[in-house]
Specification:
10-stranded mixed β-sheet, 280 residues
Length: 280
């Protein structure tokens, strides 16, 4: 990943602490800046622009922001590097507030902790799902039991779309820095008879990365499974992957996402961190 800005959303929970650790680690390795973002959640869109608030409204907002900063001072102490960061606060509903913060200074990557309520270590929660669906940058969803200092295996799902190639490139840069193998996986139908053509396309996609990262152990895998999305999660679990990188097609979002896009199902079912790359 090129140097730039890595943003991380925190709500002072254990999953957001994990997200902050990931952000600090990625930023240190890539020479990037970290922005720490917190939204004081409200029922509606929030109080509006500061210059339009009445004095009593402004006093309430100031109190909420001050309380968030006090919580941050305690929260950041256990996370290396975090104490040097300034907490950026917005008072609004979480989705609107996060979008406003990111519009002020766009980031290349947003890191969010998973807070889903499914079976252990599965699911992501509506806030993370909305971020993946609505925001224009790449999003990394991490689990609260993940260990970013000890990545061992990375998987990238390749369907040859521009977004999946971007996910593959991000995964290759991360795996090369960590010195861990990258498995580039193209899931095929069990009855596919054109395997040689698929293998050729996959190798063509990997060739530039082999040249760019000559020390990276890069393995192309054709994985037969009845479903692409379930197949990718199944492969990742079979090798004990710590992170899956996938592409997210399109930006129209809501209908495609809710009906079961690859990003949605992998995020829902995966037990490891998931990096979702957006199309350029």
């Amino acid at each position: 990943m090129d140097p730039g800005i890595i943003a991380v959303a925190v709500d002072f929970s254990a999953p957001s602490a994990t997200a902050l650790r990931w952000a600090e680690r990625l930023a240190k390795d890539a020479g990037a800046e970290v922005r720490v973002l917190h939204v004081v959640d409200t029922v509606g869109p929030g109080p509006g622009p500061r210059d339009r608030l009445r004095p009593e409204q402004q006093a309430i907002v100031d109190g909420l922001v001050a309380d968030a900063r006090r919580r941050w001072e305690t929260f950041c102490r256990s996370i290396p590097g975090a104490a040097a960061r300034e907490l950026e606060v917005e008072v609004a509903d979480r989705r609107s507030g996060l979008r406003r913060l990111l519009e002020r200074r766009p980031a290349r990557l947003l890191v969010i902790g998973a807070t889903g309520s499914g079976s252990p270590n599965v699911g992501i929660g509506s806030f993370a799902a909305a971020a993946v669906r609505d925001l224009p940058m790449d999003v990394l969803i991490v689990r609260d039991d993940a260990h970013p200092l000890h990545l061992a295996r990375v998987v990238a799902g390749v369907d040859f779309s521009p977004a999946s190639i971007r996910a593959l490139e991000a995964a290759a840069a991360l795996a090369a820095r960590e010195g861990v193998p990258l498995y580039a996986v193209h899931v095929t139908d069990p009855f596919d008879i054109d395997v040689e053509a698929d293998a050729g396309r996959l190798e063509d996609a990997l060739a530039p990365l082999r040249a760019r990262h000559p020390r990276l152990v890069l393995k192309g895998e054709l994985y037969r499974h009845v479903g692409v999305r379930a197949g990718l999660v199944d492969f990742a679990e079979s090798i004990g992957a710590d992170l899956i990188a996938i592409g997210r097609r399109g930006t129209s979002g809501a209908r495609d996402f809710l009906l079961g896009s690859m990003a949605e199902q992998v995020l829902r079912d995966s037990r490891c961190a998931v990096w979702v790359a957006k199309p350029t």
